[in-house]
Specification:
Elements: H1 3-18, H2 26-47, H3 53-60, H4 64-67, H5 69-92, H6 94-113, H7 118-146, H8 149-179, H9 185-188, H10 190-204, H11 220-243, H12 248-270, H13 279-282, H14 285-315, H15 320-325, H16 328-348, H17 350-368, H18 377-404, H19 412-447, H20 452-477
Helix pairs in contact: 2-7, 2-8, 2-10, 5-6, 5-7, 5-11, 5-19, 6-7, 6-10, 7-8, 7-19, 8-16, 8-18, 11-12, 11-19, 14-18, 14-19, 14-20, 16-17, 16-18, 17-18, 17-20, 19-20
């Protein structure tokens, strides 16, 4: 047989192999479970601490000013290292970096659970944030690499649902653990979860390509500039909510962060040979639209959880367990609505689905602003929170899909890191702005002679309205998103 005959005989078989349809197996289900569990670890630790802060303050001797760093220490390092860690996964291997992140997260959780002083806890929260930054971009990148476009929507729907639910569910879990075995178990419970995810990743995720076979290199200057820039910007945002926007503690890190990020943009576009953030990504309209919209949606969600939790504890006088359990119905409605999102995507497309979700969430947030000093859970909290839950559920999947559309496989890690940077940094910025607005108006009302409860309520109402404004802005930025999802996404 000649070479030409052999080629003709082999070609149809090769073509059939290339076009073989994807079959979803039990292994693929287990992969999604493992990846969603890893993402839950990251997201739940953003919110799970909120209801336990009074107990932590009393036991470890935190001051009022330093207590916020139990939450912010995690947020600062998480947001600061996401982009760098996403790129590390593209170069060194997504599975390898995921396992490293789980190890870091487990060690930090163990030491935090055993902490005997305030700054040990803050340092371990910062280390947890580093571990989360290693984990989070890898989860979405692995889904994008493992699943082709059609089944990918199903996998990312589960991922988005897990990420969205865990942020709210963390409040309930935190309340239960704080009232029950104690706040230390908020950290110690991470250990068996990390162990289970590590075992699952070793069993069901394929090994990464060897680093030696990769031609990409780290952009050291870009890595330092972007990471330091985001870190300083996040610190400035956090400080602004505590000290005010005009305070040197806020102005200096904000200015330095903006300067470093501006240099990073210049360096990536004109100097770097193998950039940390390839500018080809920011030329993709779906990626730009997804990141801007995610920042606005994230800011509204972070602010809602923060302001609503304070309203329930300071005005309605709920304890941590009551506050946490109050979010269970919203968690369930998000679960139900998220299950229907893939079908809705197939009918309406990405752009319209996100716009509808943002409008619904805006309406729910505006209804929260009607909460008064004599409000009740059933009327003022439950109804609006269910509406917000439906709206948020409709944005999770389409924004995650749009963030990776048209992105090459070897850049999925950095694209995933970028959408998470938008969510975390956007959430921190929105939260700090809305917290400052609410606190400022409360102070104004107190100086005008209004009693404490009514003044606090007035501040919270204005905070809810500001959150609604941010969500309304996301309606307009969603116009940048593509009309239709990838083929067969439904």
């Amino acid at each position: 047989m000649t070479d030409a005959q052999q080629l003709r005989n082999d070609t149809p078989q090769a073509a059939v192999q290339e076009k073989a349809p994807f079959v979803w197996t039990r292994r693929h289900t287990l992969i999604v479970v493992v990846i969603c569990a890893a993402q839950i670890l990251d997201t739940i630790d953003i919110s799970i601490m909120n209801v336990a802060l009074p107990q932590i303050k009393g036991e470890l001797g935190f001051s009022e000013a330093s207590l916020s760093w139990v939450v912010n220490g995690y947020l600062v390092t998480f947001g600061g290292f996401l982009l760098l860690c996403g790129r590390a996964g593209d170069i060194l291997g997504h599975r390898r970096i995921l396992l490293a992140g789980l190890g870091v997260f487990a060690v930090a959780s163990l030491v935090a659970g055993l902490a005997s002083d305030d700054w040990t806890l803050v340092a371990m929260r910062a280390l947890q944030g580093c571990g989360a930054a290693l984990i989070s971009p890898m989860t979405l990148a692995l889904l994008a690499r493992i699943f082709p476009e059609g089944p990918r929507a199903k996998a990312i729907a589960a991922w988005g649902m897990a990420a969205g639910l865990s942020g709210i569910f963390g409040l309930a879990v935190g309340g239960l653990l704080t009232i029950g075995p104690g706040w230390r178990w908020i950290f110690l419970i991470n250990l068996p979860v990390c162990a289970a995810v590590i075992v699952g990743a070793l069993l069901w995720l394929d090994r990464d390509q060897r680093p030696a076979q990769r031609t990409q290199r780290f952009d050291l200057i870009g890595s330092v500039a972007s990471t330091a820039g985001v870190l300083l910007l996040t610190v400035g945002i956090v400080q602004s909510s505590q000290e005010g926007w005009s305070a040197p503690q806020a102005i200096v890190p904000l200015a330095a962060g903006i300067a470093l990020i501006a240099y990073f943009v210049l360096h990536e576009g004109r100097v770097a040979k193998d950039p940390l953030l390839p500018f080809s990504l920011v030329k993709i309209p779906s990626v730009v639209g997804a990141n801007i919209t995610q920042a606005l949606v994230g800011s509204g969600m972070f602010a809602m959880l923060y302001v609503a939790t304070l309203y329930q504890q300071e005005v309605l006088h709920y304890n941590p367990l009551q506050t946490g359990l109050g979010y269970i119905p919203q968690t369930l409605i998000i679960l139900a609505a998220a299950q229907q999102t893939p079908r809705l995507l197939g009918i309406l497309g990405i752009r319209v689905t996100v716009i509808i979700g943002s409008v619904i969430a805006t309406i729910g947030m505006a209804l929260l602003a009607l909460s008064g000093p004599n409000g009740t859970y059933l009327v003022n909290i439950l109804g609006p929170s269910l509406i917000i839950g439906v709206g948020m559920a409709l944005t999770f999947l389409p924004l995650s899909l749009a963030a990776g559309m048209g992105v090459p496989d070897d850049q999925q890690g950095v694209a995933s890191g970028l959408i998470n940077v938008s969510r975390v940094t956007g959430g921190a910025l929105g939260l700090s702005v809305i917290a400052a607005i609410a606190a400022g108006y409360t102070g104004h009302q107190l100086r005008a002679g209004v009693d404490q409860i009514n003044a606090a309520t007035d501040g919270f109402q204005l905070g809810f309205l500001a959150s609604a404004g941010l969500l309304m802005l996301s309606v307009f930025t969603a116009l940048l998103l593509p009309r239709k999802p990838p083929a067969t996404a439904s």
